[in-house]
User: Fold these one by one.
Assistant:
Number 1:
Amino acid sequence: MFLHHSSRCRVIHLLFGFCFIYILLIGYLRLNCWKDPTSQFFQRDRAHVPRYSKYRIQQAEAYADSNVIEKQPNYGTKTSPELCIGVSSVERKGISYLKSTLGSLQHGLSPEERAQLYFVVLLAHTNQSEHGAHGQPWLTNLADQLPTYGDNEERFALATAMESSQYHGIKAKFDYSIVMEECARTGAPEILMIEDDVVFMDRWWPRVRDAIAAATNKSWELGHKDYLYLRLFYYEGLLGWNSESWPRYLVSSILIATAVSTVLLLIWQWMPATRPHLTRPVVLLVIFVFTPCLIILYFAAGANYVLPRPPGVSLLPDHACCGQGLVFPHSKVTDEILPLFRRHRWMKTPTDTLIEKHADDSGGLRWALTPVVMQHVGGQSSQNGVNRGGGTTPARIWNYGFEEYDASSLASERSLR
């Protein structure tokens, strides 16, 4: 049966109108979703630019090289610090990030804030002279403790055997446990474990201190004595739409289409004046063409754009990544993480994977701070020696929101403390 001329014109006009609006929506999303790696409108070359981190790296290295850094007291033998920061570092050929990592952690701290922190840095070589930072004045100024494998015969023997095995994942896990154990000995209530190829924003410590308090309170509210960890960095690309969740997405889409159908039916029934316009072709067009097209555009926009994470501390999905910066409560380190590492010392499971599996098995709470306070800038992995990209940006593990920080605003914030 052919459509009546007026009905056909109405459908054509409706199609043209929808197409016009749809094109405008696509243009809007292109302008706003370019930095969401889960979006179909993601512009990698434009988004993957170290706008803030490049400035922060320069600032951190200049601070590390300056002569105004005063050596802090040894908190391990006096007052326990509020936070112990542990990092193990291996030598990379042609590039090093350790100076900018430590410099960014300490630049901008007041003397009182610096006194609340304790830095443990392990140069992860049995012959530490192989590391370019060995013996450098900036390292001895920035680190409160520089452990070596030679401090303990068993450690040295294990490290030697692991270096000979040529499997970097096993030794990286061992190094992680050494630094974590040294931090635990300081008595600090919280321990921050970081990789050596990251950079922290200015004024990171006040934000992390507040986040630790928030994570602790929220854990109590959920009936937990403590949380497993607080994540200070995550990769947005793993927070998108997940293939294993497709049944939920499908059900949600069907419910939306059903809701649209119900609304149109109610309008047709209770508003008779609309009936000449809500013809069967129009209703079918809205339900089976317009609605699916808008749902597709919703998913194409990207999960981080349409469902952004709320600012502050919130639970993170199980599939988050990675281990660049995790805060652990002292009790979790001594009672769970260190024993876990000892049991799985010779397993090839990477450090972050082992921790995530333990979280799955134990039901430990995994919190994350948004926005993140640190960026992964390494182009070469400290754990497997594989090149991830050149310059100051990695090929993949990157937080795009970090680059939105404004250096001037943060400097002003520091001056007002």
Number 2:
Amino acid sequence: MAHSVLFDQDQMYGSGGGPSQSDGLEFYQTQYADPAASAGGVGIHGSADEFYASSYGAATPIVERSWLAAFGTGGFPNEQPLLEELGINFQHIKSKTLAVLNPFKPIDTAIYDDSDMAGPLLFILVLGTFLLLSGKSQFGYIYGVGLMGTIGIWAILNLMSKGGIEMMRTASILGYCLLPIVFLGSLGLAVDLKSAQLGPAAAIIPIAWCSYSSATMFVTVLSMSEQRLLVAYPIGLFYTSFALLTVF
């Protein structure tokens, strides 16, 4: 059976057609205020950051959306720069380069804990560019001699030392100590080292410089002070090969 309920509006609301005061219905005014209006007129037309700041009293972090942010710390909070994520530390590069330029200065072994290859690759590229400008295309020989020489010296050092050394650290030290040979290559831009009388003689100083710096670093890192001459001998042959490529 279907039931229907009919409401008499006159009976419910009285003769006036509205809610009577005797029904006990009371309406209260709330203390709610529009946060947009209290924030100085920031409404739906304002930005999301402004509305968040006006509502909760704190602004959201602004993310810099550009390709330059990848090379700095302006991207996300506590984000490392891209160069540090790739293992490129300019402070270590500077310290290692200065250690090569002044081999008589005491060496801080902490800077050789990482196998930084940014500096060696840069020095090899610069040396190859100098030789190319001198009319010698030696890029293949440079990489070949560098690879085979690094493997050989790494094997010798691991046989001579107790603790041993990683191959990448060996390549890093040998690459940084190549800097005097780079200076010899830059000299070849002004003087023809092959035809000049002082060409072979000028190569002796860079070879001795590279060998002494590299041997000092290896001896310090591996604690092989009593085997300095044994370490310097294969390293001297290694840098002599680069000097021959540079001169001839």
Number 3:
Amino acid sequence: MNHFPWLTIIVLFPISAGLVIPFFTFYRKQNYSMVYFRYYNWISFINFHWRLGIDGFSIGLILLTGFITTLATLAAWPVTRNPRLFYFLMLAMYSGQIGLFASQDILLFFFMWELELLPVYLLLAMWGGKRRLYAATKFILYTAAGSLFILIGGLIMAFYNSNESTFDFQLLINKTYPLELEIIVYLSFLIAYAVKLPIIPFHTWLPDTHGEAHYTYGLIRINMELLPHAHSFFAPWLVILGAIQIVYAALTSLSQRNLKRRIAYSSVSHMGFVLIGIGSITNLGLNGAILQMISHGLIGASLFFLAGISYDRTRTLVLDQMGGIGTSMPKIFTLFSSCSMASLALPGMSGFIAELMIFLGVIDNPNYSFLFKIIIIIIQGIGIILTPIYLLSMLRQMFYGYKFSNTLTPYLMDAGPREIFILICLFFPIISIGIYPNFVLSIWNSKVNFLLSNNFF
């Protein structure tokens, strides 16, 4: 009993317990409403409350965050330099992300947004790559500047036309604003999300940081739910911006010779589909956007992890120096190819269902003209064609042909049991969602219907 892994059991038990929440019949039926589990009057003179809750929309992202963070911690093992600080920062980052998704107070939302920045900055600066200080500094400058717009927008909403401030989401839903003011507030939040999503042209920090966050959550939770009239005004522009982002980022990814930068720009391209789904203001489109957020969270994590273990073996990220490594690392080659197929939306995988729903969602909107729909669909189609081009060329440069450089390690070790276990854990839900998407769509579908019942123009 002295060697029984009590700490492991304690950590994994709440994760395992959380995974069964969506299976409760009562929760599925009531997932359009908010379930509060923590309420505390924190700073009374400004009505700032510690108000946390979950619904069908947030539970999916909370479970995804816990799942990815657990696997990321296992992927980083063993940490040889300052392991205690590393794991503390990982948990602090995780706490900020969970708090963000569960926040039901707009000032608490901003607080959790800021809470995440410091541990991410320290993780990048201390355990990042060769340009870690540059990447970390660029990340903190961009995101801190974007955060200011959340605070401005939140304060306007809280103090407008009221004797006392209110930051409660449930009360802010019932507030009305002049359309001009609502557009200004919407734009303020949109700038902040444009930095963190990222949306072009605020995307330049991402390739250096090699990561992404699903801050489209805020675009739906605050902009769409609390500011429906302004969302109706900006919706076609979101669709246009998303379509441009798909093609621009795909072309940029194709030109990259660095493996991680190619995957990073691929992430920017896939987030364009999320923008189109949110801008469609239809049941199919919005469900597809949320599914794309979940899907790409899994696919993006697997591709970045594979890039990391490839670098550990070859000690290079330059694609032209990786030719022919498929014969030395057949397991990594198989797993990399499978995850790349998922990223290019192969039928039977989660990305295909998400992008198909977004396609149909744009067509389903009666307020968009026929010409507008045709143009957006053609641009989306170009992006879908470009995706296999840059992903398959990446696989060809890495695993096929002859070695371009003699600097590679003569013997390349293939994937070990720990790495295979992590990738199977990521790939299994990708396949499961692709085969039976209703398994997850039913979790938030009622919430989507509730959102679409708002007074959109």
Number 4:
Amino acid sequence: RPTFALAQIKGDVCLVQVPDTPAPQGAMASALMAADVAVFRHEFITLFRYSHRATVHPADLAILEPIADHCTLYEEDKGTVFLARDVMARLQKLSMDARR
């Protein structure tokens, strides 16, 4: 099941899909390993559409808030995600705070 989060990538707050696959047994997540995320762009009210896949250095990526499954409606075949209104309110606040 995809895991969505509000994240800051190089200063911009956005919706990302992060892989939920754990690291192989015995492996450690490294602060030097790049993260592969799917980035979704805001399209309309609570609708986001898949934009692109990005490989991001950990220094450029901050997960601000994981989003609970019940707060998203993911239509994988269409590449769209709908967010609950309370999540949208938090996204707007995080976006405004990031611009300051």
